């Protein structure tokens, strides 16, 4: 099988490519240049897609003795991931750029080009398992990335290979060292790759400009503070609200909702964050279709954590998920991933983008 190995310059993708070679595949490595200013996107464990990362990927390919290329996807990444991220915050939503990158870049733009060039599959260093077309959680629960891959369609999964999903992260690092890969001890990237400073509010403010509004008490409607833009807030946020005085009961306030048209941010007690019903749009079913019009599942609303047993009801081009137990910090724009409710709970059924909660 001809396999195109996406090599980010990190340890995970390097070992994934190595395992693809060991499996006897005809492997070609490719590094995606996603930034128009690559010199500015690496600071220790923050950021990615820098010249340093491209060089690390090339050295790993040399060790594996496979062809290696750098493909410029910066314009596509900017339009489909960065611009989408900014637009979502401007609408009071909380997007997941990693999920969008998998959907639009790695398993759309990259996979489409790979298939056009005669490759059979794209191999990545994601922590997940693809067993017979079924997307499953990784063995390493702390590193599992099935949530951000749940947006993949059946056809995309048919051409996706995740070689390291059966190995805990320490084992991947140890294997890299044994193979002589210099990235064995390279720090994992974290936060949002295109915001290496980690300051999301400043990043968004520079692109959206000031959009003043009020922070109000959700129960009384009283104005508690002013803000420069709703892009500085997300549902469930506790800090950085700009409120001088504590709540009358002395308990902390949290962001409960964001109204983009008026620029109003509603705050209140933690108990008001409880969500029992999630409405979502644009569902993607891993098997090509929903398991049924109504089915039991396990819902996950964050990359790590935020799980609850649930019942999903397919409603036209959307899905309504009734949670058995309430979850907190569930915001429009996030993804909800649905898993099979068996004892392991590791098979992905599908995902959708949250549009409303109750």
How would you describe this structure to a colleague?
Helix 1 packs across helix 7 (about 170-180). Strand 2, helix 2 and strand 3 (about 70) form a beta-alpha-beta unit. The strands form four sheets. Strands 12-15-14-13-16-17 form a six-stranded antiparallel beta barrel. It has a five-stranded parallel beta sheet with strand order 3-2-1-4-7, with helices on both faces. A four-stranded mixed beta sheet has the order 9-8-11-10, with no helix packed on it. Helix content is about 25%, strand content about 30%. By secondary structure, the chain is an alpha/beta fold. The chain folds into three domains: about 1-125 and about 165-185, Rossmann fold (3-Layer(aba) Sandwich); about 210-265, no CATH class; about 275-355, Translation factors (Elongation Factor Tu (Ef-tu), domain 3, Beta Barrel), CATH 2.40.30. Keywords: ATP-binding, Cytoplasm, Disulfide bond, Nucleotide-binding, RNA-binding, Transferase, tRNA processing, tRNA-binding. Pfam families: tRNA_Me_trans (PF03054), tRNA_Me_trans_C (PF20258), tRNA_Me_trans_M (PF20259). It is an enzyme of class 2 (transferase).
Which CATH architecture of the largest domain would you pick?
A: 3-Layer(aba) Sandwich
Distance between the termini: 48 Å
How many β strands by DSSP? 17
Low-confidence stretches: none
Helix content: 25-40%
Order of H and E elements: EHEHEHHEEEHHEHHEEEEEEEEEE
CATH superfamily (homologous) name of the largest domain: HUPs
Task: Please tell me what the overall shape is.
Answer: globular
Q: Give the rounded overall mean pLDDT.
A: 94
Strand content: 25-35%
Tally of individual helices? 8
Please give the CATH class of the largest domain.
Alpha Beta
Q: What count of domains describes the coordinates?
A: 3
Strand order of the largest sheet: 12-15-14-13-16-17
CATH level-3 fold name of the largest domain:
Rossmann fold
Largest sheet: 6 strands, antiparallel, barrel
Q: Which structural class matches the secondary elements?
A: alpha/beta
CA-atom Rg in angstroms:
21 Å
